[in-house]
Amino acid sequence: MIEDNKVVKIDYTVKDEEGQLIDTSEGKDPLAYLHGAGNIIPGLEKALAGRAEGEEFSVQIQPDDAYGQRNEALIQVVERGVFQGVEQLDVGMVFNAQGPQGNIQVTIIAIEGDEVTIDGNHPLAGVVLQFEGVIREVRDATAEEIEHGHVH
């Protein structure tokens, strides 16, 4: 049964509300995570708690239990010069930046002359996520995995 300090492996597919594929483990190894260590979004972790190996799941996760709501304050216009050493800037490029809560990823969403609009929201912020899959394995975590907070 899935509970804290268990290593869980799942095969999954996640889509948005319109049914657009966001991610899948199909064709890859199952996703392995340490339950209770915050390795996956909180809503999915809560939805999987108490389930058993071999069980199928289909759960809808609201933004507050996933990547949060969109925050328009995280959209800013900056001067091209802040991207020192980058010759070509294109919409969709992702950079690491220092934010108030530490490192954040920002995506270029517009370029007009020397003004570059960046968005610090997670790309899935504000998105309702639909997960479907099957629990492939549930095992006790090793002492080292628990100490390190992730699967080895």
Automatic annotation (TrEMBL):
Question: Any keyword Glycoprotein?
Answer: no
Residues annotated as domain PPIase FKBP-type: 5-78
Spell out the reaction equation it catalyses. [protein]-peptidylproline (omega=180) = [protein]-peptidylproline (omega=0)
Q: Read off the InterPro entries from this record.
A: PPIase_dom_sf (IPR046357), PPIase_FKBP_dom (IPR001179)
GO molecular function terms listed in the Swiss-Prot or TrEMBL record: peptidyl-prolyl cis-trans isomerase activity
Q: Where in the cell is it found?
A: Cytoplasm
Which keywords does the record carry?
Chaperone, Cytoplasm, Isomerase, Rotamase
Name the Pfam families on file: FKBP_C
Q: Which domain of life is it from?
A: Bacteria
Broad class of enzyme this protein falls into: isomerase
Could you tell me the Gene Ontology terms of the biological process aspect for this record?
Answer: protein refolding
Pull one GO CC term from this UniProt entry. cytoplasm
Name the predominant localization.
cytoplasm
Family, according to the entry, reads as follows: Belongs to the FKBP-type PPIase family.
In terms of PANTHER family, this protein maps to: FKBP-TYPE PEPTIDYL-PROLYL CIS-TRANS ISOMERASE SLYD
> What is the protein name for this chain?
Peptidyl-prolyl cis-trans isomerase
Protein's organism: Grimontia celer
